[in-house]
Amino acid sequence: AKRSGTGVALYDSSRHADSSGHLALVEELRTALTTGQLVLHHQPQLDVATGRPVGVEALVRWAHPTRGLLGPAEFLPLAEVHGLMGALSDEVLAQAVAQAAAWRRGGLPLRMSVNLSASNLLDAALPGRVAGLLARHDVPPESLVLEVTESVLLTDPERSLAVVGALAGLGVTVSIDDFGTGYSSLAYLRDLPVAELKLDRSFTADLLTDPRTEAIVSSTVELAHRLGLHVVAEGVEDEATLRHLERLDCDTSQGFLHSRPVPAAELETWLSARPAAAARP
Ligand code: C2E
Ligand code: MG
Ligand code: MG
Ligand code: MG
Questions:
Q1: Taking residues 112-133, what's their average pLDDT?
Q2: ipTM of this complex
Q3: Which domain of life is it from (predicted)?
Q4: Whose Cα sits closest to atom 21 in ligand 1?
Q5: Where do the DSSP E strands lie in 71-129?
Q6: Looking at the whole model, is its pTM more than 0.90?
Q7: 64 in Cβ contact with 101 (< 8 Å)
Q8: Angle 157-169/126-137 helices, nearest 10 degrees?
Q9: Residue 177 in contact with ligand 1 by CB distance below 6 A
Q10: Is the beta carbon of 261 within 6 A of some atom in ligand 1?
């Protein structure tokens, strides 16, 4: 729990506002981190043009001993405020890279996307740990995608930029998640060494019904391509939307249409049920 000065301040102020149940959950989360209760679910990402799976996004869940499987919204804010996000992300990264390595050994060279949080980007030692992890598991840096949101960069843009720069310097793909919902999208596209943009789900959802959304998506794909970026649409839930994304030249599709996030074994079953399974270098 040794975090930045900001983290400590947040810890203290929120502590007073907390109910005791809230604090109990924090202690349980501390325990969860060291007892294997945090698990990853994986959601496939498909090449829009070919329909082939090209990667997965790892999404964390907490297999709580009494409350059941908790989603990230139920514990990530707590982890961030109580200085546990560094440890949580280390655990997520370790599991994700190990899984990517196992899939590679099994002939499934899927890209692995992992979400980072605000405090991760203030941690100047993170790029070194990521490099060590990749080397230990013999996973090429290009196979790891690290997703950051625009809001995550706002805490301390200068420090965050340095960390993002170091991660990109390793050869890791940096992706802007929930693109379009932040405040300075264009400045980030210009200034950050990003290689991928993930269109926020709200744009995907309204693509077919709102002409203004359609104009934004169409122009964003074009802009991204002119900048040499790869575009992922999140939250794709129906065929008609997927077909329209294809017309707009969007590269990759992710959403419930293909699969919900599922445990690794279930993803393997899903993959093997597909004719043109992941044989894409
Ligand atoms: P995100 O990175 O934007 O992840 C996509 C979220 O949208 C996931 O929710 C996923 O289940 C959901 N989703 C995917 N396809 C669809 C769809 O077609 N329709 C709808 N309605 N939803 C869809 P989830 O797993 O609850 O994660 C929520 C957020 O929590 C993530 O948003 C991400 O910001 C954060 N998160 C998840 N795992 C991690 C993690 O390991 N570390 C960090 N720092 N953040 C994480
Ligand atoms: Mg994400
Ligand atoms: Mg997202
Ligand atoms: Mg989102």
A1: 96
A2: 0.97
A3: Bacteria
A4: 235
A5: 111-115
A6: yes
A7: no
A8: 20
A9: yes
A10: yes
